[in-house]
Amino acid sequence: MRIGTSIVLIALGAILAFAVADLVSFIDLTLVGYILMGVGVLGLIISLLMNAPRSQRRTTESRTVQDPGTGERVTRHETRDDI
After folding, report:
1. pLDDT given at position 5
2. Cα distance between residue 34 and residue 15, in whole Å
3. How far is residue 55 from each of residues 29, 45, 46, 48, 50, measured CA to CA in Å?
4. What pLDDT score does 25 carry?
5. What are the residue ranges in the chain where pLDDT is below 70?
């Protein structure tokens, strides 16, 4: 469920809970409205938690090798971000 769907469920639940009179006798529209609002709020919280930025790790690696021809030492530093 995405953020937009959650907001729609909250709005629809609020309309059913507060603005609609009991038009149907075999179902309690107020209770249905509260249930829809609860599901919408729960979906909104889960959507926000799933879309929150995650911590990024940075990996630094160094390698030193010696050139066999000249005997010169070469050091290579590599840094990358792991997502």
Report:
1. 94
2. 10
3. 43, 19, 18, 15, 13
4. 80
5. 82-83
Residue entry with tokens 């309309």: 15
Give the Å distances, CA to CA, from 61 to 58, 75, 77: 10, 10, 6
Rounded to an integer, what is the distance from CA 21 to the centroid of its chain?
A: 36
Q: How many CB atoms lie within 10 A of CB 34?
A: 16
List of residues 6+ apart from 15 with CB closer than 8 A: 33
What confidence score (pLDDT) does residue 83 get?
59
Rounded to the nearest 5°, which phi and psi values hold at 49? -70, -35
Structure tokens at 28: 């309690």
In one-letter notation, the amino acid at residue 49 is L
81 backbone dihedrals φ, ψ, rounded to 5°: -95, 125
Tens of pLDDT, residue by residue over 18-37, are: 988 777 788 889 999 999 99
